[in-house]
Hints:
single chain; 348 residues; mainly alpha; 0% strand; globular
Amino acid sequence: MTTPTSTKPDTRPAAAAAPGRSAPRRWAPGAGVLVAVALLMFVPAATDSFYTFVATRMLLLGLLATAFNAVFGFGGMSSLGHAAFFGIGGYAVGIGVTRWDWSPGTVLAAALAAGALAGAVFGLACLRVRGIYLLLLTLALAQALFGLAFYQTEWTGGDNGIPNIPRDGLPAAVREGDGYYRLTLVVVVLCVALLWMYQRSPLGMSVVGTRESESRMSAAGYRPGALRTVAFAVSGAFSAVAGVLEVYLQGSVSTASMSWQISADVLVYAILGGARHFFGPFLGAVAVTGLEVWVSTYTDRWMTVLGVVYVVTALFLADGVLGRAASLLRLARTKSGAGSGTSAEART
């Protein structure tokens, strides 16, 4: 008589191996970011002061683009008004430092509060509009703030702006080019990490859910209007931080910080890099800023070259650079899986 054998498969080896396979994948993005940040710390040592300046602008524009994407890519709301938040941060520095001798900490707190408040106002004003009308309304609101800054010459200096903004309140080690670059790097990494945490939080995922289906979120008990307003407030606060960094870098602020061209540039950054990917807009900001510098060294018609790049992106990279890279990676994995399956069938 034979002893019946159990039909339950022994899964102990697979269970033991699963954590080993998944852990590297789980920690690889974070490790890659840490390595990139460590390498970026040495950029000033490898370049001259001009390229350190350019690298600093790449960082702060990357932060602006990432903050914008909290509304655009993850919130599903087109906006041409983010230059307003950028300019609010800049004027917080200009007015606070030159008139009231504010410390950098006070300036940063004021910029965060003012940017969040302005973002909430934008969000509330845009609750009833979608699509192209949302785009136009955000543009109109930003232009209204631009006009306010232009005509309030007593506070903002009008078209001349506020020049000669000192860095005296900053620690001596970070007042010059190399030190300020590293300070910007630390602030940008911290802000991007906070935006990452927000985006992965239940609140951030609820905003994504509203983008996908507002009716289903309403049926589940959520308030899509409140979620959209929160997304604008978060985006406005971190966009203002980028404005603070810009003014400390340039040493001046004017109405140019609130021009609609900046809003259009940020929109291009997000589309070029991949708005559905968290790091896509940051990549787009770095790529476009670097391309501007590189092309302008060879020709005065660099705007034409950038226009061609944008057209090519719209035609062949509809999901942005990271979107196309993700598609190619999925395709490679699919082919690899199909090849492994064919080999297994051949062995059996």
